[in-house]
Amino acid sequence: MDPEGLTITGNCRAGWSGRIDETVKQKGRNMHYYRDESAEVSCCYKYLMFSYNIVFWLAGAGFIAIGFWAWSEKGVLLDLTQVTRLHGFDPVWLVLAVGAVTFILGFAGCVGALRENICLLKFFSGLICFIFFLELTAAVLAFAFKDTVKEWINDFFLANIKGYRDDIDLQNLIDSLQRLNFCCGAGGPDDWDLNVYFNCTNSNPSRERCGVPFSCCLSDPAETVVNTQCGYDVRASKKGAWGAFIHARGCIPALEEWLPRNIYIVAGVFIGISLLQMVGIYLARALITDIRFSAARRQAVAYSRA
User: Fold this and answer.
1) How many whole angstroms separate alpha carbon 138 and alpha carbon 147?
2) Which region, left, alpha or beta, applies to residue 211 given φ > 0 means left and ψ of -120 to 50 means alpha?
3) How far is Cα 164 from Cα 175, in angstroms, rounded to an integer?
4) 251 contacts 184 by C-beta, under 8 angstroms
């Protein structure tokens, strides 16, 4: 046996083995996941969208929790028939409706951004567009049909005067409106004749007969405790004397006086809300475009490397 031949053969094998190992390593490097940064979704849009919506998501959850807490305090959750027995408007419904819409929007925006889910982002932008056009339509109709809107608000106020004592939240809402606007009733104090506790009929046994709620009374800066009986028997006297004890102006006339004086504030609030909604729509549409571009870029890179 030739020792020199064995040596040459061994060297050849070692050389081939080294080249094979090098080739395998090179192929392994080539087979490693290739990350093209140009094919990645913009972190700026992604996390701006998430940050924008997390606030609304939490706010929506808070509104829903407050609504159910209010219902539990009134015993509605134990007896759901109370909802149908209420003669006036229950403000909890408004809180729950706003909370539900806000929660759904926040959820769709947050999850859609983090998961890069185009369906959720489309739902988010579509729902905000729908709400925006509803607001715009309501504003235009309210301006075009002022008398009709005024009549509707007046009827709504009168209907809730009837149910003033039926629901504590409705009672607090009416009291707040009357205190903040220095008014009483829809058109005037006589509107409280519609309530069974305050009407002036002889058949009314209530101690509040021919009176008004305490929120109609003129405030006395010297009083530190609210006198809840200040409106008793006020309307039993002559109308000319009412102004010394209560606000003789109705809340609808008060609203008509307040709106022109604060038109810039109202317009500013409307524009601010609209801008906030448009920012949400822009972020959602920009993120959708970026996701689609990134997907197309990844496909192009994969095809070119195939």
Assistant:
1) 14
2) beta
3) 9
4) yes
Smallest CA-to-CA distance from 169 within 92, 66, 246 is with: 92
Instruction: Say whether pLDDT at 18 is over 90.
Output: no
**Domain spans in the chain, listed from the N-terminal domain onward:** 40-145+268-305
Q: Which amino acid is at 79?
A: D
Q: Which class for 5: exposed (0-12), middle (13-18), buried (19 or more C-beta within 10 A)?
A: exposed
Distance CA 106, CA 61 (A): 10
**Closest Cα partner for 202 from 210, 194, 214, 191?**
210
3-state secondary structure of 306: coil
Q: Pick 77 or 179 by higher pLDDT.
A: 179
Ramachandran area for residue 117 (φ above 0: left; ψ -120 to 50: alpha; else beta): beta
Residue 113 burial (C-beta neighbours within 10 Å; 0-12, 13-18, 19+): buried
Please count the CA atoms within 13 angstroms of the CA of 185 that sit on its side-chain side: 20
The tokens of 16 are what? 């081939």
Question: Which residue type does 81 have?
Answer: T
Tell me what pLDDT residue 4 has.
Answer: 46
Residue carrying structure tokens 């999850």? 111
The two structure tokens encoding residue 28: 């392994």
List C-alpha distances in Å: 110 to 208, 254, 295: 52, 42, 20
CA distance 158 to 15: 99
Give tens-digit pLDDT for 182-220: 999 999 999 999 999 999 998 999 999 999 999 999 987
Cβ proximity of 189 and 212 under 8 Å: yes
pLDDT computed for residue 25 by the predictor: 44
Cα–Cα distance measured from residue 220 to residue 179, given in angstroms and rounded to the nearest whole number: 13
pTM of the shown model = 0.73
